[in-house]
Amino acid sequence: MMSVHTDCIVSVQILSTLMEITIRNDTFSDSPVWPWIPSLSDIAAVFFNMGIDFRFLFPLENLQPDFNEDNLVSETQMTLGGNGSEDSSCKPIFSTLPETNILNVVKFLGLCTSIHPEGYQDREIMLLILMLFKMSLEKQLKQIPLVDFQSLLINLMKNIRDWNTKVPELCLAINELSSHPHNLLWLVQLVPNWTSRGRQLRQCLSLVIISKLLDEKHEDIPNTSNLQISVLYRYLVQMKPSDLLKKMVLKKRAEQPNGTIDDSLHLELEKQAYYLTYILLHLVGEVSCSHSFSSGQRKHFVHLCGALEKHVKCDIREDARLFYRTKVKDLVARIHGKWQEIIQNCRPIQGQLHDFWVPDS
């Protein structure tokens, strides 16, 4: 009822009652049985009834639940007691995305994962995390604060039992949720970075996405920060805007009937190359500036500074008419400054690059 009621105030009131009942059962019950929490199938059915396609909830073929869309439809018909046609039972309750109802479901799941950490198996948790990430890409949800999403993500990550094994799998799966650079950066920045598991996932995911955007062959994700910085250096060398532009031009020429491109198309490709550089640099910052480093890693940052200067900064020629170049160069300066701070202080430093330019998706 909370998830389908079209009155936002009533939905919030039902959420309050549902949470109160759950907390009371957990706190005052002498029963050894845990309070009821919705199964993965229950959660999927709730979003399915809102009109969210099953393939959207579980978009990856190699990561599917042990039920399918037909199962959800059958359960819905059973709930209706056999009254109503198949068409009516499949009809979405909402004509537009119900942000309030979705957030109320997420809030309740946050409570459930907090009071019953062992309520879901690792595979179910991965499917829930991917579901949340995919839903967060909806444009309507991008317009509202996703604090409740992040709170639930913290609980889900904390509840994964075999964390070190699941991190690489999770990174590769999240990486497949979109092909657009801006969306991929959005997914990285959705991961909470104020917990150790969140920072680890954020860094590893950034490396996987950098590899994807550079068309690099997938390789195992390094676990230690030393290895991550070493891999980052190799990627940084490939982020020269002019080289990225050459790749785009060659690809576009191959698509053209006469094998040529005009000046306007070349300018558009240059904008795309700098846009890609901007996204890649943000991901570089996520890997290198989101956690503590020891003094023994100073030499790695010295090498990174040299690569950033040589392969990116020196390749950018600013022009008053081409402001996007200045945007990228400004980001280079901010990253370089953070690395210099780490080098000079030689002590654990935490920091975060803040997004100051969000291009259209």
From TrEMBL:
It comes from Phyllostomus discolor. This is SMC5-SMC6 complex localization factor protein 2 isoform X6. InterPro entries: CANIN_dom (IPR044276), FAM178 (IPR026161). Belongs to the FAM178 family. Pfam families: CANIN. Residues 1-218 form the Coiled-coil SMC6 And NSE5 INteracting (CANIN) domain. It comes from the Eukaryota. The gene is SLF2. Coiled coil: none annotated. One of its GO terms (cellular component) is nucleus.
